[in-house]
User: What shape does this take?
Amino acid sequence: MLQFFAKYKFFGIVLLVLSAIIISVMYYALNTPDKLKIFQPVDISDESLLDPSIQFVKKYHTISDFKLINQNGDTITQDDYPDIYVADFIFTTCVGICPIMTQHMVQIQEVLKDEPRVKLLSHSVTPEIDSVAQLKKYALQKGVNDSKWNLVTGDRKQIYDLARKSYMVAVDLPEEQAYGMIHTENFVLVDSKKRIRGMYDGTSPDDIARLLEEIEILKKER
Assistant: This one.
């Protein structure tokens, strides 16, 4: 019997060590928070959303700096969004998907009302119509919290470039049509390094639930 144990002693030690390693790896995997992917242009399957200038970009894509005007007439820049935020593109006279998107933004605002790290940003794709006064009227109608959510207007080319080249949420159209683009229903989750960490259907309750879950994951990143 002693000879049997002596013969397989080395094998037993190896098996014990391997078991300890496997248990440690499993414990680490189960107790490490999920990490969201970093979206790059090449990850977008719908090529109509990609400006040719970024179509083949595989890394280092970030949201460009911006300077726009909000519903209170204040200048809003990237400095007003130092941490996590959710962005979309709408217009106040839209009777299609925009009301649903805005209602979902209101829900997000309510859930995160006590979370100062997370803000909301809605860009008007019809800046010639959506003046500061029009945005303010819309904000009051929808219950926008000015400290958390900016509705912004400004230079149409800048907004167009942001939608197409930064957030990748608009389809290009000839300049003479519909302000040059068709916005989509997408919400975009952006991190503190201006990287896209999630894209969601802003008309889908399931996607809004997923967005809220993934904001919590993103908050845990270091």
Residues 2-31 form one domain. The chain has a mean pLDDT of 86. The first helix runs from residue 2 to 7. The chain is about 35% helix and 20% strand.
